[in-house]
């Protein structure tokens, strides 16, 4: 299963009586009704760890590109109308700034490892606190309340998985708690953010900018306000989109399917 | 008025410092440059008038290193291309066409391991990159170990192994056209060239040819010669090129630090004290 296709519903499951296993690409399984699948005796697998570094790398790419206005800058550099580069054209510095990571799982932690090398101050919010050694290794400070993270961060990066608890985790209230100079980076799922509230926050300069690898839906309708904003970078859900990783994902999915069909324990089974 | 001027704070190469200007400012004691590059100044000429010169090396190193990493990541993950696809009226694209190259575990070759080059190495290490470097002199063993960098005495060896070649040297007569046809041919056809030094360090025509014929995969340039490029220049039209408007040190924080360093140097010169970052003609 790639990119949530085909849609797995009761109809499909009834028409596939011999279906034994669904191998889903990537780590997110929010698009699957696990209870339903289980009731049909179908096993499920994903590819959780292989996507981590590329997704963390993309999170860093979006943060750097947004803060330094890379897309805007490139457009200026190649535009037919450009005669000179204005001297007062500035971006915001990443080095030494404060990064708040919401969701410190495998991907969130890898982002922290990278951000530390940029001498960033790292705050994180997570269901549970990480071990002390893990925190010290990246210099990350736990914020039990998300509000504390939102109020202090220059960059807020979302790396949670989508669950009923994280749906619209970032809404009007959270955006208003953020600094007006802050940037929101989303590499999790579109639904983790209240998109209408985000549009409003960007339009009213409640926050400065956003960089989104994920939206709801994907892709956005062509007349959506987010597509027209100068301070928004959107990428088409490419978190894991590198040749090497896609290759390994395919290998892992095939392995899971073969195990499922042979009645062996399934690697990376989702229970 | 000319007689009153004792110091010049040069912002973005203005004013132009030539013989005329120097003759009209008999009491000029110091020229403080915004930024670290001094290639736009005739150092010998200025020194001959007894005027001291200073740059701002500490102020720009972090932001320029950040820019190098930003360009590397943006290029390899095809950021500009895919952003344009995301916002374009027609969403036709093939999944396989937008795949990028994995950064983690790739080899980065840094040409010029000064303060900026070293900060890039620190950042790249966190991405688990394999780091090679070429420099006039080898760094101390502890410095190499901290970033896991391997010295390449010959630039050829770096060029042949690197997936990403990052140029971070200052522009001098020795580094002019350092990367030319020969060097580009030594690079892997899958490699990306990133230039955050000066446009003239790269032979631009040779670069265009290499990009057009698949000699190298892509380029990301914060600097060109001239800046900006003429609007009909081939580099502006190539899909596999990202160009940014010399934004290496253009952040709010860096601008502040640049001005602080310049003021420190100016005050020192006017008080007859040693300058924190004096630059001498070589």
UniProtKB/TrEMBL annotation, chain A:
What keywords are assigned to this protein? Oxidoreductase
- Domain of life, per UniProt, equals Eukaryota
- Domain named D-isomer specific 2-hydroxyacid dehydrogenase NAD-binding: which ranges? 60-239
Spell out the GO cellular component terms annotated for this protein, sorted alphabetically and separated by semicolons: cytosol
Q: Where is the D-isomer specific 2-hydroxyacid dehydrogenase catalytic domain?
A: 3-270
Entry-linked InterPro entries? D-isomer_2-hydroxyacid_DH, D-isomer_2_OHA_DH_cat_dom, D-isomer_DH_NAD-bd, NAD(P)-bd_dom_sf
The Swiss-Prot or TrEMBL record annotates one GO molecular function as: hydroxypyruvate reductase [NAD(P)H] activity
Family statement drawn from the similarity comment of this UniProt entry: Belongs to the D-isomer specific 2-hydroxyacid dehydrogenase family.
Q: Which PANTHER family does the record associate with it?
A: 2-HYDROXYACID DEHYDROGENASE-RELATED, 2-KETOGLUCONATE REDUCTASE
- The protein's name is Glyoxylate reductase/hydroxypyruvate reductase
User: Native species of this protein?
Assistant: Pomatostomus ruficeps (Chestnut-crowned babbler)
**What gene is behind this protein?**
Grhpr_3
TrEMBL record, chain B:
Q: Where is the D-isomer specific 2-hydroxyacid dehydrogenase NAD-binding domain?
A: 69-248
Q: Does the keyword Oxidoreductase apply?
A: yes
* GO CC term, one of those recorded: cytosol
UniProt keywords (A-Z) are: Oxidoreductase
InterPro entries, sorted: D-isomer_2-hydroxyacid_DH (IPR050223), D-isomer_2_OHA_DH_cat_dom (IPR006139), D-isomer_DH_CS1 (IPR029752), D-isomer_DH_NAD-bd (IPR006140), NAD(P)-bd_dom_sf (IPR036291)
Q: Which domain of life is it from?
A: Eukaryota
Q: Which residues form the D-isomer specific 2-hydroxyacid dehydrogenase catalytic domain?
A: 10-279
The molecular function terms of the Gene Ontology recorded here are: glyoxylate reductase (NADPH) activity; hydroxypyruvate reductase [NAD(P)H] activity; NAD binding
Q: Identify its protein family.
A: Belongs to the D-isomer specific 2-hydroxyacid dehydrogenase family.
Question: Know the name of this protein?
Answer: Glyoxylate reductase/hydroxypyruvate reductase
Per the UniProt record, the lineage of the source organism begins with:
Eukaryota, Metazoa, Chordata, Craniata, Vertebrata
């Amino acid at each position: 299963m790639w990119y949530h296709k085909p849609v797995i519903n009761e109809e499909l499951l009834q028409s596939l009586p011999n279906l034994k296993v669904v191998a889903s690409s990537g780590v997110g399984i929010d698009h699957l009704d696990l209870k339903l699948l289980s009731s049909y005796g179908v096993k499920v697998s994903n590819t959780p760890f292989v996507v981590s570094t590329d997704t963390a790398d993309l999170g860093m790419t979006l943060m750097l590109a947004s803060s330094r206005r890379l897309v805007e800058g490139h457009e200026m550099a190649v535009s037919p109308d450009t005669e000179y580069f204005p001297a007062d054209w500035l971006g915001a510095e990443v080095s030494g700034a404060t990064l708040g990571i919401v969701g410190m799982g495998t991907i969130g932690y890898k982002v922290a490892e990278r951000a530390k090398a940029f001498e960033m101050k790292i705050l994180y919010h997570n269901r549970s606190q990480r071990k002390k050694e893990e925190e010290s290794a990246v210099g990350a400070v736990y914020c039990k309340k998300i509000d504390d993270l939102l109020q202090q961060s220059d960059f807020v990066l979302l790396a949670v998985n989508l669950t009923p608890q994280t749906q619209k985790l970032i809404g009007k209230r959270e955006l208003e708690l953020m600094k007006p100079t802050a940037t929101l980076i989303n590499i999790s799922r579109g639904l983790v953010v209240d998109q209408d509230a985000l549009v409003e926050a960007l339009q009213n300069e409640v926050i400065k900018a956003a960089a989104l690898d994920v939206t709801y839906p994907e892709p956005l309708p062509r007349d959506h306000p987010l597509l027209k904003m100068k301070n928004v970078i959107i990428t088409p859900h490419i978190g894991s989109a590198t040749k090497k990783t896609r290759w390994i994902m395919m290998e892992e999915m095939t392995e899971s399917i073969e195990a499922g069909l042979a009645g062996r324990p399934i690697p990376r089974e989702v229970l | 008025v000319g007689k009153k001027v004792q110091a010049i704070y040069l912002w973005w190469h203005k004013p132009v410092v030539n013989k005329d200007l120097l003759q009209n400012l008999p009491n000029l004691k110091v020229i403080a440059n915004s930024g670290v590059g001094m290639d736009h100044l005739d150092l010998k000429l200025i020194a001959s008038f007894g005027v001291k010169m200073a740059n701002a090396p500490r102020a720009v190193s972090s932001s320029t290193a950040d820019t190098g990493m930003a360009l590397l990541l943006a290029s390899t993950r095809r950021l500009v291309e895919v952003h344009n696809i995301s916002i374009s009226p027609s969403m036709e694209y093939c999944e396989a066409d937008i795949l990028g190259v994995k950064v983690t575990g790739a080899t980065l070759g840094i040409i010029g391991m000064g303060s900026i080059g070293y900060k890039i190495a620190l950042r790249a290490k966190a991405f688990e990159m394999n780091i090679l470097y070429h420099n006039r002199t080898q760094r101390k063993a502890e410095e190499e170990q901290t970033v896991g960098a391997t010295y390449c005495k010959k630039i050829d060896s770096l060029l042949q192994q690197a997936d990403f070649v990052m140029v971070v040297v200052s522009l001098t007569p020795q580094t002019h056209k350092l990367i030319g046809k020969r060097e580009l041919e030594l690079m892997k056809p899958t490699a990306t060239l990133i230039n955050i030094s000066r446009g003239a360090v790269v032979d631009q025509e040779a670069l265009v040819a290499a990009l057009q014929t698949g000699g190298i995969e892509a380029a990301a340039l914060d600097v060109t010669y001239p800046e900006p490029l003429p609007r009909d220049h081939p580099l502006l039209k190539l899909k596999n090129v990202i160009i940014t408007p010399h934004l290496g040190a253009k952040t709010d924080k860096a601008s502040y630090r640049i001005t602080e360093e310049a003021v420190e140097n100016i005050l020192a010169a006017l008080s007859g004290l040693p300058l924190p970052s004096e630059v001498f003609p070589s």
